[in-house]
Amino acid sequence: MSLEAFAPSRALSMGVELELQLVGTHDYDLVASAEDLLRMMARSEVPGDVKPEMTCSMIEVSTDVCNDHAAILEQLEALRGALTDAARKLNIGICGGGTHGFQDWTERRIFDQPRFHYLSDLYGYLAKQFTVFGQHVHIGCPGPDVALYLLHGLSRYIPHLIALSASSPYVQGKDTGFQSARLNSVFAFPLSGRAPFVETWRDFESYFSKMSDTGVVNSMKDFYWDIRPKPEYGTIEVRVMDTPLTVRRAAAIAAYIQALARYLMIERPIRLAEDDYLVYTFNRFQACRFGYAGVYVHPETHEHRSVADEIEASFALIEQHAIELGSDGALAELLQDVRSGRNDAAWLRDRHTGGMPLPELVMAQCTRWMGGEAV
Amino acid sequence: MDLLIWPEWPLRFGALFHVAVALVLTALTGEAGRRLGVPRVTGYAVAGLVLGPLLLGWFDASDLASYRSVLDLTLALLLFELGIRLDLRWFAANPWVVATSLAEIALTFILSFGALWAIGTTGGLALAVAAIAVGTSPVIVMHVTSELRAAGQTTDRLLALCALNAACSVILFKLLVGGLHGVHGGWHLALLHPLYLLVGSILAGALIAGAYTALRKVVDPASEQGLVATVALLLAALAVLTALRLPAALAPLIAGALIKWYDPRPHLWPQQFGSVGGVLVIVTFMLAGSAATSGQVFAGVGVALVAIAARVLGKLGGTMAFGPASGLDLRKSLALGVALMPLSVLALLLAEDVRQLYPAFGDRLMPVVLAMTIVLSVLGPIATRWALVRARESRTGETS
């Protein structure tokens, strides 16, 4: 099967997808209510889309293609409002967070759709363990080679995005010590990690056809890369983020990616090299494990700095672009969090180590996500 | 002189030994049921019938009276837990759930009464049986849902509807029986008594809720000492309720709902009050069979079957009519109606109480209620289990 052509899209347009947790309000464990929620949402008029996901305790919401942060936030707020209403009628809670703190993966049920059953048969227990919740951000690219430049350029900012979005310290009732433990589940998949280092779409097509000839993959969907091109949309899709605890933070992170993309596309500040990836998995691990405090090894200078310092430095580089895109306000808030060392993982850990049991913590997550503005 | 230190021959065991053997047999029947793919409660119910006067005669109705406090405690614990799942905020957000409940209660009552009236049952008896038919067994529903680790829309509604119809059944029953016998004590008594029961239960429920909330500030209910404190609280409540001659079932249920309303945090304790709950449920079912004598059962079986048929129609009608508006699809609405089938100890105790107050009426009522509970405590759990598995809400990987 060959790769479809790269459909060009409006440069720097963006779309956001959020995978969300559905929980019962009695015990705050995950509950298989996706079908009921989707049925109820089908009646309401909201922008974007609400779709099923791998297991019946999760749903995915997505915005339409938007131009700026304000539009993304408005659509996410509208989706949040409609979902919250529907959830109240069904007596369930909806929350963000990259993992559910204490769910037992053996109790998950695969959503009744051919693709999910296929994946479940293929991956076995990995599919059920894949009950993790991520934020995906699409950035529009005018052409495929630009897309690949953007993909490799953004790879340097993966640790930044992980530290900013991390919200999965707890897995199966235990503190993992990680800020984003979700990515460890993603890493178990054979085709996860990073895209191959190819700089032109022609090379990418030949890579794809070689992989396709091996019979290992059928479509782009089979790659679980941190960033992957999405030819039918004409976008690249950044997939490393945990779903933040609020839609406000999700929108701010999308705005950060958009500003980074504008900086990379317009200034072309990086000369890409295969060796950039030597430090990639190390940096990625450090950010997952320690968040802002993780070590970031610069791909070119090999200088060791903290992820927080790197994020701060990146904000200086993209400031002008953020102003052009109208997202400087949102990014200022994000930077404030970085300076005070706050992220969602810290928010969760503060509460649990302060004595809040995990079910109550999930309830607090629901209050935070469904409540909207109160961040 | 040595008579008291050496054993007598043949050995004489106290009554406790008898109970112990019966308990083991009941537990084993439950286990056998599990292996056959039927809920354990069905096994317990069958064992209770075998041990009772119907077959072996190890227990009889007098045991039901002497172990009454055990049954009351079991019910109180389970209804308290059920009450906590009764989320009043949900009813405000989705009034169709309440509509479903009212519809299935009203339909069950009207159809049961109508069917019994049509086959020539006297009005008073028909009304009393219809009131009992309204309720679903909380013990069975709680046990089957926890056995399947069921969760989802059908399960949530099943528990809510069960709590509401059980409460409604108790109130209706007391109201009707009081009304029917008002001629003896005057109509003001017939009105005052149910009013006293209702208001008294609400006040008692508020007191229990207050005490539990205060207790929770000191000790975690999910811990061992918290569990003991909760059980002790309900035991004390039962003593007070008995002294006030209030029904043991209503106040704990109301207390649970008030607690969830006041404090929406998850209220979790070891599943089904852990092993304590399990033992109590087994004892309850062991004793439930002790009231059934073959003469009575045969006398009541005809009327009971008619009432059961009408009850099935009422429950299914109510859930099918309003389920979709409340956010269920047709498959789950049907499952919900089927899952509401069980009838058990609560019904039996209601009938037993009436027999204490009005023996003549009680002797006519008891056979019908007995026959109904026998059928629905054996088949009811199977129906509930089937429905929850069909609705795909079991989390233990059970499939039909």
UniProtKB/TrEMBL annotation, chain A:
It catalyses: L-cysteine + L-glutamate + ATP = gamma-L-glutamyl-L-cysteine + ADP + phosphate + H(+). Transmembrane segments: none annotated. GO terms for molecular function: glutamate-cysteine ligase activity. It is an enzyme of class 6 (ligase). InterPro entries: GCL_type2/YbdK_subfam, GCS2, Gln_synth/guanido_kin_cat_dom, YbdK. It holds the Pfam family GCS2. Its EC number is 6.3.2.2. Keywords: ATP-binding, Ligase, Nucleotide-binding. ATP-dependent carboxylate-amine ligase which exhibits weak glutamate--cysteine ligase activity. HAMAP family: Glu_cys_ligase_2 (MF_01609). Belongs to the glutamate--cysteine ligase type 2 family. YbdK subfamily. This is Putative glutamate--cysteine ligase 2. It comes from Aromatoleum diolicum.
From TrEMBL, chain B:
It is found in: Membrane. Keywords: Membrane, Transmembrane, Transmembrane helix. The chain crosses the membrane at residues 12-29, 41-59, 65-84, 96-119, 125-146, 158-183, 195-215, 227-259, 279-312, 366-388. InterPro entries: Cation/H_exchanger_TM (IPR006153), Na+/solute_symporter_sf (IPR038770). The keyword Membrane applies. It is a multi-pass membrane protein. Its main location: membrane. Residues 25-388 form the Cation/H+ exchanger transmembrane domain. This is Sodium:proton antiporter. It comes from Aromatoleum diolicum.
